[in-house]
Amino acid sequence: MRLWKLAQYGAYVELGRIIVAGFRDFDLKVGTMSMGPRNAITDVAGVQVGHVTVQAGDINTGVTAIIPQPGNLFQNKLTAAVEVINGFGKSAGLVQVAELGTLETPILLTNTFGVGTCVNALIRYGIAENPDIGRKTSTLNAVVCECNDGVLSDIQAMAVTEADALAAIASAGSEVAEGSVGAGTGMVCFGFKGGIGTASRVIRLAGEARHLGVLVLANFGRAGDLILPDGRRADPKQPPQSEKGSIIIVLATDVAVDHRQLQRICRRAGAGIARLGAFWGHGSGDIVLGFTTANRIAHHLDVDTVAMERLSDHRMDEMFRAACEAAEEAILNALCAATAVQGPGGASRPLFADWLKAQRAS
Predict the structure, then answer these.
(1) How far is CA 320 from the centre of its chain?
(2) Could you point out which of 133, 158, 281, 339 has its C-alpha 20 to 30 Å from the C-alpha of 306?
(3) Band of the pLDDT at 17, cuts 50, 70, 90?
(4) pLDDT digit string (tens) for 307-333?
(5) Which residues are catalytic?
(6) Is residue 212 within 8 Å of 200, Cβ to Cβ?
(7) SS3 325
(8) How many CB atoms lie within 10 A of CB 132?
(9) Considering the domain 2-361 in this protein, what is its CATH number?
(10) CB 269 within 8 A of CB 241
């Protein structure tokens, strides 16, 4: 579900599903593996995504919420890992994820100046479910990731509110809107309009279909550097600038892996970024946050040892390929699904879908 905030009234409206183009709609594909039924991160059972889009005047921003699993995440944590490819970013909660290998809140994506607000919202959300947090038990590790949407939005307006963050969580469902929605509303990618994208891959283990899904907040890449899987270079005819953008990749799987294996899988998502022509420039924040829905970890444990199932390392190559392909296709889907927005001073960016249509017509 997507909620649009009517800023002048302080209310939200739900918009119906808008059919937007994906990369495969242009008879193009990424890699060799099969995609999941939705080709989305929500092909991993229990994962849900919600958006709140905030637009008014020069403001084009919002919040995207990823709910890793239903239920009380603080009491029943997920095995998680983070791979910081380039650390030019202001995200929250990643240090503890890297140290403990657990995730205990929904994941919120937003703009750079919305991180603190979203952290507060997640803390209130966690305390509402667990009144003992910070008093009789540990505090809460709220996880929020960001990209800078200042090109197409007045970031100094600090328009994202705690209510927006909580509304994004409440709106989450299995259908994932892509493009210029939620946190992706004001993002730019390779000189084109960027935003939210998702994709998934199927892995067969012991005769059963398992899934690896990716959701990206794509706001990176120099204009003119984008290389498509068929070898074409997509140039939006924008003046080249230094790499100042960022990308957040959220990776989910239902395969039982441990923290070490999961971080290795997250690292391979970086190959999907690189395949498209990015080089992770000095000013780019490129972060992969991954979790598995297997191997849950109870907050209160009365035992000295805990059994954990893990994938045999000789099957890791399929997970690596899945992470690479899904990340690459999710970025291309974000580009294809993006719709036009106009920011401060009339700022805008061309649409990648228009470029593809023009190429097909020529």
Answers:
(1) 18
(2) 133
(3) very low
(4) 889 999 999 999 999 999 999 999 999
(5) 246, 284, 286
(6) yes
(7) helix
(8) 11
(9) 3.60.70.12
(10) no
